[in-house]
Amino acid sequence: MSWLVTEPAYLAQTRTAYDTVAESYADLLRDALTDSPWDRAVLSAFAELVGTTGLVGDLGCGPGRLTGHLAALGLDVFGVDLSPGMVEVARRAHPGLRFEVGSLAALDIADGSLAGALAWYSLIHTPPERLSPLVAELARVLAPGGRLLTAFQVGDEPRHITHGYGHDITLDAYRLRPDFVAELFTDAGLTVEARLVREPQPPHEKAPQAYLLARKPA
C-alpha cells in the first residue's frame, strides 16, 4: 500500500510566489545590507559567537545574499531554500557555495550537525499555529552549544500579499511577537540569549523588526 502525502497549501503558495519573484527579489535586495547597520551588527555577532570551526546553515536562504555575507565573515556556510528559482539564482551568484532545495519543516540535515542556523525572515510564511514543529526541526539540527538566529517583522496580524517585487503573486505573511517566538524556542529546548527590536526603516519597512538569538544547551 502506498500513502499519498499532501503538501500544505501554504508551502506550495510560498514556493510559487518566490519562484516568480526570484530574479527581481535578488536585484532589489542585493545591496540591502549596505543600508542596514543593525542587520550587519546582528549577523556579525552571530558569526563571532558561532566561530569558524563548525558548519552553518542559512535556512530559507533566498538568493543567497546572506549566505555570501556569512561566508565573507569566515563561516563554513551553505544555503537551503524552498524555492528552486531562488536556489538557481543563489548558485549563479555564489558559485563557490553550496545551495540545496529543501523545506525547513523537514530538513535533510543530520541531527546535531550545525554549529549555527540562520532563519532570516524565513519563519514568516508559516502559520503561527504550525511554527512549533518547524522550530523543533531547527533545534534538531543544531549541535550542543550551537546557535539559532532569526529575524522577523513584529506584530500579530496576517497579511495577504498580491503584488511584490514587480509581480502579481499570492502569498501570506505573518508578523510575530518576540515573546511568542521566544516561547517557541524555549519549548524546543533552546535558551534565548538575546533579543532586539528596532523601528522600521522607511520606505520599505512598515513594522518594527525583531532579532532573536538562541543557544542549544551543551
What attributes does this structure have?
alpha/beta, two-stranded antiparallel sheet, 9 strands, 29% strand, globular, transferase
The CATH topology assignment is Rossmann fold
Strand content: 25-35%
* Structural domains: how many: 1
Class from helix and strand fractions: alpha/beta
Poorly predicted regions: none
Shape: globular
**Number of helical regions:** 6
CATH architecture: 3-Layer(aba) Sandwich
Question: What's the SSE pattern?
Answer: HHEHEHEEHEEEHEE
Q: Cα-atom Rg, whole angstroms?
A: 16 Å
Number of strands: 9
Instruction: Report, as a whole number of angstroms, the end-to-end distance.
Output: 42 Å
- Overall pLDDT metric: 94
What proportion of the residues is helical, as a percent range?
25-40%
Quaternary: single chain
Query: What name goes with the CATH superfamily?
Result: Vaccinia Virus protein VP39
CATH level 1 class label: Alpha Beta
Strand order within the widest sheet? 3-2-1-4-5-9-8
Major beta sheet, specifics?
7 strands, mixed
GO molecular function, one term: methyltransferase activity
Organism: Streptoalloteichus hindustanus
Pfam families: Methyltransf_25 (PF13649)
Protein name: Methyltransferase domain-containing protein
